[in-house]
UniProtKB/TrEMBL annotation:
Residues that span the membrane, as ranges: 12-37, 57-81, 88-105, 198-222
Organism: Musca domestica (House fly)
Compartment(s) where it occurs, according to its Swiss-Prot or TrEMBL record: Membrane
Topology in the lipid bilayer: Multi-pass membrane protein
Cysteine pairs bridged by disulfides in the record: C148-C185, C149-C169
Pfam families: Tetraspanin
Family label: Belongs to the tetraspanin (TM4SF) family.
Entry-linked PANTHER family: RE08073P-RELATED, TETRASPANIN
The protein, known as: Tetraspanin
GO cellular component: plasma membrane
Gene3D superfamilies, A to Z: Tetraspanin
Keywords, sorted A to Z: Disulfide bond, Membrane, Transmembrane, Transmembrane helix
Organism classification: Eukaryota, Metazoa, Ecdysozoa, Arthropoda, Hexapoda
Main subcellular location: membrane
Amino acid sequence: MGFETSTLKHILLLLNFVFAVLGLILFGFGIFVLVNAPEHRTVVHGEETTVDIGENLAGGLIIALGVAILFISIFGCLAAIHESKRRLLIFIVILCAMILIQLLLSSMTSQGTRDGLAGSVEKGFKDLWEEELKEPGALAYYEKWLHCCGVNGTDDYVAIKHDIPKTCCEDGHCTKAGDYFTKGCEAQFNKYLASKMLTFNIVNCLLIMAEIAAAVFGWLLFSNLKNESRRSNLTWI
């Protein structure tokens, strides 16, 4: 025996509530990315050198995805409450499209973290190091923020016979060699990026699983309503 129509309605309403919650989480996370994205810049000779990682674009896309999920959840609730076969069918098609889009987005972010973003960060820090060679202090912002030293570590400064800057130490106090930050800024920056991508991917995976479940139960409800309508027509005959 299959599910009763009322049971399917309640399951679908519950799943749409889950959508709304996850959509709000994505929306909030997108705002967090935009608001808390540090200004990756260093001023050297009056000019700004930046590491462009596209956080504003990423935050905007996450917000847009969160808003889309909220609208879909509202539409799904209305389709279930009104037992509209047409709306349910549209809801299922939209969910299938969203699942494909999110799978593609997850693939792009994962690949982007390994390739595109990694390449962008590597180039950015290479440019910063070239500025550091001309004028000490180009990496100061990142060393303070990420608790790192040089691009790859303190050996970067040793190799060019420069004194290790105070920004490589906690609160700028360096009393002995062990006080220096040992990790390079490029590695720390990539770690920072990975933590943000992990949060997004976890929420996105939960959302995809909920969407698959909603598409299945939406189809079951659509089939039930279609069968009930068919039986009703046969009764009149």
